[in-house]
């Protein structure tokens, strides 16, 4: 992805996940917004792209952060919202173990309180350790927790999987966490 496409992708993450009001768009209850309006309002804001560039960003984003609806006239972020929306995901049984990547500076806080969603709608978990490491690297020196997801599910916690393969849950109490370095 070029630097310009990376900047556009970051901007799309901001407006489709956190602050649609910056450019004056509305997200419906499921997080969708009109593609043409998004392009027009983004261009008016100074972030210049067209439908061809948007299609390329959605198709080639390695994390599949964005998705079009079936008729390709609406777009939304796949997960990671801090604005209240209902993504329409169904509760699913997760794998036995999932992983959570973070920065080393957050380890003690997580050991004290468990994983909490903070300003997001869900805690994000990975099905493989390499993805968790990459996520952790965004927060400094990476650290990975194992999450006993199947046990949580059996204990009536809900799990969802986003369009881009990220596992989502409301919180992970400390008794379902294990340091991956143990």
UniProtKB/TrEMBL annotation:
<dbReference type="GO" id="GO:0000215">
    <property type="term" value="F:tRNA 2'-phosphotransferase activity"/>
</dbReference>
<comment type="function">
    <text>Removes the 2'-phosphate from RNA via an intermediate in which the phosphate is ADP-ribosylated by NAD followed by a presumed transesterification to release the RNA and generate ADP-ribose 1''-2''-cyclic phosphate (APPR&gt;P). May function as an ADP-ribosylase.</text>
</comment>
<keyword id="KW-0520">NAD</keyword>
<dbReference type="Pfam" id="PF01885">
    <property type="entry name" value="PTS_2-RNA"/>
</dbReference>
<dbReference type="InterPro" id="IPR022928">
    <property type="entry name" value="RNA_2'-PTrans_KptA"/>
</dbReference>
<protein>
    <recommendedName>
        <fullName>Probable RNA 2'-phosphotransferase</fullName>
        <ecNumber>2.7.1.-</ecNumber>
    </recommendedName>
</protein>
<comment type="similarity">
    <text>Belongs to the KptA/TPT1 family.</text>
</comment>
<dbReference type="GO" id="GO:0006388">
    <property type="term" value="P:tRNA splicing, via endonucleolytic cleavage and ligation"/>
</dbReference>
<dbReference type="InterPro" id="IPR042080">
    <property type="entry name" value="RNA_2'-PTrans_N"/>
</dbReference>
<dbReference type="InterPro" id="IPR042081">
    <property type="entry name" value="RNA_2'-PTrans_C"/>
</dbReference>
<dbReference type="InterPro" id="IPR002745">
    <property type="entry name" value="Ptrans_KptA/Tpt1"/>
</dbReference>
<keyword id="KW-0808">Transferase</keyword>
<dbReference type="GO" id="GO:0003950">
    <property type="term" value="F:NAD+ poly-ADP-ribosyltransferase activity"/>
</dbReference>
